[in-house]
Amino acid sequence: MELRFRDPGLSFRMGVTVFLLFALYALFVWVLLSAGVDYTLTLLLVGGMMALQYFYSDKLVLLSTGAREVTPAEYPELHAMVARLAQLADVPKPRVAVVPSRVPNAFATGRDPQHAVVAVTEGLLRTLTSEEVEAVLAHEITHVRNRDVMVMTFASFFGTLAGYLMRWFFWYGGPVDRRDRNGSAIALVYLASVVVWFLSFFLLRALSRYREFAADRGAALLTGAPSHLASALLKISGVMERMPRQDLREAEGLNAFYIVPALSGESLMELFATHPSLERRLRYLEQIEREMRGQRR
Hints:
The chain is mainly alpha-helical.
């Protein structure tokens, strides 16, 4: 079957999400400056955090999960799978990392395909068969090829900054110049922080759910076996339900990047979820399987 990765729907959604978030963020900065926040401090905060996200996003994600980059000598089969799938997807071979976690999961990070990292947990390698691991890796490499990892990284920056400032203003009154500080200015900036965080939250989740469908399709095309990814998703979800809540809480911070979200307790409504439901993903993979069988005849 011809590998047709181009997804106009995903490209459109990424473009709209980035445009809306930049517009929202520009308005947010204007509110900060209008309320008396120091101009230099604003530039340092915004510029510094954006540079940090751009150049060190992959390292920060790996550091936060305890992931360690591994060599082909340590994990030869894992590296061989990544190399083969990257060649099929026509992207540079990503670096490979392993996370010392019992929670079965995987993610991709990096600002572009040339600086990408694909990471899997020790729990995933113990839980899945070789075919299922390959399907999961194909899903993550599709994220790299679609460049949605970079968009998610930058988009999450806006919400993170707004949330940080929201807490700062709540507890300390924020970095408003004391000569101009007044209750209305603080209230305005706090309200703007809440609005930016709230809208970023929903924009990110809407994009994240769609990008998971696109990556599922890419994995099916790369491996030629949608059933392998369906089996992997079922196993990961099944093990996740039996995992101690402490283990799941430690992994929750990167739910938007994982192939299956680590949720402690009952699942949230899909409106608030970072991923489509397991049932919808399985139905989608079944549909792709039927399409592939029809084209093979």
